[in-house]
Amino acid sequence: MKRGYIKKGIKNPRNALYVIRVNTDLYLGKKVFKNDAGFAHNIHGTLTNLKTKKNTINSNHPKASELNIKGYTTLGTPFESSTIEKIVTKYNYLIEDNNESSIRTEFEGIVYSRMVNQIYKKIPEIAELITDEISTIIKQHYRSDFQVHHVLAWRNHHVPPEVVAKKELFASHWHCDGRDTSRITLFVNLSDVTEEHGPLHVQSKERTKELIKLGFGGRHQYNLSMEIVEDPKYVIKNIGPPGTAVLCNPQLCFHRAGIPRPSKIRDMLEIRFKPSNEPLPQNWLQLTDEANIAK
Q1: Residues of the chain with pLDDT under 50
Q2: Is the model's pTM score more than 0.70?
Q3: Burial label, 162 (beta-carbon count in 10 A; 0-12, 13-18, 19+)
């Protein structure tokens, strides 16, 4: 535990108990499950999978098999180009309008990331991204039906090195998400992404376990050299034109956002899924609202 936490704990005992609980949860999660999602989220994910009715669908789709084994699968550009063009055009209008988007992260008065407010209500073409093939991959992965858990889209800007040294502004450190480990996420580029645009970086769940065993500390203090943490043999990057996609379990796989270089941006759409005993309705996007999307 960092010394700063101890000092804060002396001043605020309630905060100290919270920090102890969180650190204990993360410690147990790494010890038992070999990921950084937390013990409670791993248990919750395990129980979610056990409670979901399993069907007899075999995982014979190669992308479903890869998702099962690695914790991620790269999809290339699996969508109709006309669909992506419509989404990107509407997204660009919304993200640049202060009434339609909001600040995601800022530091000392400068905004480094914005997100579209309730994008699922504003771009109906997003529903077309759950293609028959994507649906098949997800069903074979879960061996059950699924529901959409969350939809969001954002734009990341360049962060100067002196700011990076002071604060992590948009998940640019290696980490596992602290959520129910049964959830998987479809990440879709909404802009052309090269190395210069700060692409999404992902490592497999097996490599994640290896790094935990080697002594990975946490997103703010790796306790391992960058040569080990970021060995290029194990890192894939979501580089490509708009529509380039990765399907991933970000609770089980270490991942991070790259930081765009000066004058560059990266736009990303994210759709999160969870296993379900009910099939996804055809009009799922219209049924989505703030109440049920967060369940």
Answers
A1: 1-10, 290-295
A2: yes
A3: exposed
